[in-house]
Amino acid sequence: MTVAAKLLVVDDEPRTAELTADLLRRAGYFVEVAASGTEALERIRTASPDLMLLDYEMPDMEAPEVLDSLRAGGRIPFPVIILTGARHSPADQVVGLERGATDFVVKGTDRQVVLARVHSALRERASAPAAVTRGRLHVDASRGEARLGSRALKLERRPLMMLQLLANRSGDVVTRGELLEVVWGSSYRGFEHSLEQAVHQIRRELREPGWIETVRGIGYRFVVQP
Amino acid sequence: MGSGTGSSSSPSRGSELAAALHRLRSTLARVRAELEVAEADGAAPPVVRLLADLREALETLGNVEAAALGVVRVLVVDDDERLGELTARGLRRLGFDAEWTTGLRPLRPREVVVFDLGVAGSLSSTDRAILQGSRPVVLTGAVDAASRALAEDLGASDYLIKPVEPEVLAAAIMRREADD
User: Fold this and answer.
1) CATH code of the domain made up of B73-178
2) CB-nearest partner of A185 from B61, B62, B83
3) Do A98 and B93 make contact, defined as CB atoms within 8 angstroms?
4) At residue A169, does pLDDT exceed 50?
5) Is residue A68 domain-resident?
6) Of chain A residues 94-123, which have a CB less than 8 A from chain B?
7) Domain that holds residue A174
8) What distances in angstroms separate CA B175 from CA A58, B63, B72, B158, one per listed residue?
9) Nearest to B163 among A89, A120, A193 (CB)
10) Quick check: B80 contacting A, CB < 8 Å?
11) Residue B159 has pLDDT above 50, yes or no
12) Is the ipTM of this complex over 0.85?
């Protein structure tokens, strides 16, 4: 890591927040602390952290509400989000992760495991291409959004990441191997069937076949349509 | 998906819960006693011992939560760091308490093992016996007869060919969990 990633720790219990911040600072991250959901939203607007560790239960708003506010908040940067919770309920975990969080760590988890989860989530973020607009198409995988004109496209996470990567490299052939590496996190060839399913889903949602060209035996090419 | 609805009220889950609660009380009582002795003597508390006790208390608390809330725990064993972590994260997304390691570690109570067949070559005889007893869900990239035979030898409850969608893996885990 050449530049320390900016992290935001959000917890209404000050001692817990400082202990977590201390762990992350010792690992070389630049860390700020917020004590409520409202403060967290404000810090995201002003400081654009790369990753936020967000306490699930806070007096002013629970994590799903913070995530919903972030999504509704227009074009503010959406950080990688890891939820932390004292209550380890599968339902909470699913709700939080469905709303855009990357991971869930129960409080009291070994500190090295917490660090490993933070490293892993940041690494995945670093390998993802940036949000992009090409003609009528806009894709922002970090916010879980894609639009063709005014129509929102319903794409799962991996097809969305794949469309964003292809659009970023508009006109170039992106190989199947690179798509597997960036989107699936593995060059393992066994994922090729999943890759084909993702292309199928993208084409079906776009409803215009010309956007994604198959380059037989090599990969795919994004072509801007009028 | 990662919670076993209804199973938390079974007699075995009930006695598991009670035993875990007793262990938790016992550990916390020991921590309190250590700190009271240190305070009375004006001495430094035995930090290493207290940390070990608190680690044990948190583990026991995890067992209590798992039994009470029907949390299904999963250990993903895969020597590919990114794939292992992504598989575990995909399962957490479905509500499982999933951890990833490159090798077998002592299993938590009722933990289901998802085992990449590629790791089989590095198992010690002790690990192999633990794995066989856990009746793992085995993942493999190969479809040949030798791989299938190896999976059977490891006591596989299910045998899935990669790539596996998280939902398919989750269904295999729930089938394995329901066997207990």
Assistant:
1) 3.40.50.2300
2) B83
3) yes
4) yes
5) yes
6) 94, 97-98, 102-104, 106, 108, 113, 120
7) 132-222
8) 36, 21, 12, 9
9) A193
10) yes
11) yes
12) no
